[in-house]
Design a protein that fits this description.
Blueprint: H1 2-18, H2 32-37, H3 40-57, E1 61-74, E2 80-86, E3 89-97, E4 100-108, E5 115-124, E6 129-136, E7 142-148, H4 153-157, H5 184-190, E8 196-200, E9 205-210, E10 217-220, E11 224-230, E12 236-248, E13 259-275, E14 278-290, E15 296-309, H6 314-317, E16 326-329, E17 334-337, E18 350-351, H7 370-394
Parallel strand pairs: 7-16
Antiparallel strand pairs: 1-2, 1-3, 1-15, 3-4, 4-5, 5-6, 6-7, 8-9, 9-11, 10-12, 11-12, 12-13, 13-14, 14-15, 16-17, 17-18
Helix pairs in contact: 3-5
Amino acid sequence: MINTIFLTLFCFLLLPLQFGIAGDASTVSMTYEQFEALSSADQKNVLIKAFEKRIRVSKNTYVSLETIGEQRQCSSDGQIGELITNYPTEVCSLWIQKGKYRIDAIRYKFSDNSIIDEMTAVFDLNEGLHKGMVFLRGNKTRIFGRIDTTQDYVPFCTTHYWYWLHSDYCDDKTEPHFYRRDYFFPDLLKNRENWNISLLPEEKIIRLTYPSPTKNAIKVANNERSYLLDPSKGFMPVSVKTKIDELLDDDPKWFPEPRKFKMDMRLEVKESKLVDGIWMPIAFEKWTQVSWVEGKINFFQTKVKDISFGKVSSTDTDFKYPEGTDIVDALKGVHYKTDANGEPIDSTIKPLHGLDPSQVKLPEPPKRNINIVFIVAGILLIVTALYLQFKKCRK
């Protein structure tokens, strides 16, 4: 009897450690019944640790995927109708490590699977520097690139996987496309004080909701983000719904008056797998309907070909422009063609059109470390002096 009581107490004390209530969240999966048995405070703590772990792990990620998309008619009551158009098929690889990412993407025509263009985008958050390249195919065969501080919208959007990762690249200076709310786990943690957690016993799923206004909203009618979380898969979202109905006052250059904005987005995970200890989606579908495209809805299907954590190195995110690339360097105010080493060909360097020549900064030759030169020279002088002194003493 005593042994039974002792074993029960031991298991009870071990439970918080096992499921991340204390210590490191090395194990964040549990059954629905185990989560249900926790107090409200411990339930919230478990979720926080699970989301924090997902963000932490995603800072070194490799993922390759393919997305097909289409636009369909949609009635006011949400009934999806006939096909309007097929979007290009997007095949993308993404590497993330140490504040730097690289995206390689190819877009294909849906009709005949011919290549429209190839894109590469590299962004270094530490330097605030973006390098992008587009290789146009067909009748417009051409390679051109840009060096800037602004991230490129198009290749970024081809990934369709940023929802599941961290948002380090999204700030006031570098935000390329998504609002911060589009990154699921950072947005969840940001809004932790507004969580409404409920249990769905029939599905054995956790439902988590909170209001989700955009940063420039001046009047919110009905904004909410809703997650269905699977506790047996580390609280991976299996369904996400975002509803936005608000009055925006954002960019006066494009919208001189406040404008109404409505959006309904729904994402459903169709397949998932355990990746280096973390459950991740490998097939999901997304529906998006926005107010400025009335009567139409966008539908995307994404399938992951490969994904891993902690295996990306600096060589994976390195990038060199191919020979013959037409470069616009917005930082130096010049454009030029590249040689076989990806460097500017001197004879092709010209100021950007309409730019004052005084603003032009010609590309600098590679810098040599002067300090190392002086140190080496000093060592040689000392060695020479010692050698001469040694020869003098022997005489």
